[in-house]
Write a structure and sequence with these properties.
about 180 residues
Length: about 180
């Protein structure tokens, strides 16, 4: 059942797609509208239940599915599949790839109008967390990689194929459904 992380990633992607919809910004009276522009006060006071009053999750990457999945014999396979040549797998990957994940959880929030309804005050305590992973691929030619490793270009090619095969075997052994 190692496919569960794939389902979690899909859920996060769906949540991210929904979070990119700026509908709440245009919903007059919405308490979440204040997150985008504090000048937009809701129609009445509010109290956010801790942890459930507002949760945002986002994942963003410079890698696209076109760079990770390849059509082979009428099905999609990952770049680790034996039918995908290393040169084709690495051709579309940029020199600098990023993966960013972030979340905002409303721990406590409340707000109300003053008695004369002229001023709105609010208090929100949020937990923000974000992480960015930069993956660098220099696109060095095989000769330069061989020089850095101090091996012949043929040995560098064999080592890269061996590493790809070992990574694929490890992922299959751990139960990740790659094809």
């Amino acid at each position: 059942m190692k496919r569960i992380p794939i389902y979690i990633i899909a859920l996060l992607a769906a949540a991210t797609a929904a979070a990119q919809n700026p509908t709440t910004y245009f919903m007059e009276g919405s308490t979440l509208r204040m997150q985008y522009n504090p000048a937009f006060a809701p129609h009445r006071g509010y109290f956010n239940v801790p942890g459930a009053g507002g949760v945002q999750v986002g994942v963003n990457s410079s890698l696209t599915l076109d760079n990770l999945l390849y059509p082979r014999d009428g099905r999609l396979v990952t770049l680790f599949d034996a039918s995908v040549p290393t040169s084709e797998a690495l051709r579309n990957i940029r020199n600098k790839n990023t993966l960013t994940a972030g979340t905002r959880v409303n721990l406590l929030g409340f707000g109300s109008y003053t008695r004369n309804r002229k001023h709105f005050w609010s208090f929100d305590l949020n937990l923000h967390a974000s992480a960015t992973l930069n993956i660098y691929f220099s696109g060095l030619p095989l000769k330069e990689i061989a020089g850095i490793l101090q091996v012949s270009p043929e040995n560098a090619r064999v080592l890269s194929h061996r590493a790809k095969r070992e990574l694929r075997a490890f992922m299959e052994e751990e139960g990740y459904g790659i094809s």
